[in-house]
Amino acid sequence: MSDGPEADVVDLLGDEYVRTILTETRARPQSVDALSDACDADPSTIYRRVERLEEAGLLTPNQRLDPGGHHYKEYGATLEAVHVYIETEGYDVELDRTADEEPADRFTRLYEGFK
């Protein structure tokens, strides 16, 4: 039987807010405010889910600068697929994640985000 981080993902996916957050952040990064609207939930509820998803490595934060000079984060999903295999001994979980971004590409994207 699977245990550890992969098995924790199965528990996380049981939460409707988590599923919505992952769906909303799949195409493009979203702020907590945008995710709060999409989930029809209080921002504090979304912050808790985002924190759990970050800990599981399923969301990655990106710092943004708005035109007024304030900083805020947007979150992008790193999860592409979850495979659960039922076996005689229990189950096994495999995660497909997006390819890691090269450091130079990440720097360029972050720099352009501050322009």
Give a concise summary.
This protein is 45% helix and 29% strand. It is of the alpha+beta class. The longest helix has 13 residues, at 43-55.
Question: Your description of this structure?
Answer:
The structure is a single chain. This protein is of the alpha+beta class and 115 residues long. It has a single domain (5-113), classed as Arc Repressor Mutant, subunit A. Helices cover 45% and strands 29% of the residues. The protein contains 5 helices and 5 strands; from the N terminus they run ααβααββββα. The protein has helices spanning 5-12, 16-27, 32-39, 43-55, 103-113, and strands at residues 30-31, 59-65, 71-77, 79-87, 90-97. Strands 1-3-2 form a 3-stranded antiparallel beta sheet. Strands 4-5 form a two-stranded antiparallel ribbon. α3 crosses α4 (43-55). The radius of gyration is 16 Å and the shape is elongated. It starts with a helix and ends with a helix.
Write the layout of secondary structure elements.
Elements lengths: L4 H8 L3 H12 L2 E2 H8 L3 H13 L3 E7 L5 E7 L1 E9 L2 E8 L5 H11 L2
Antiparallel strand pairs: 1-3, 2-3, 4-5
Helix pairs in contact: 3-4
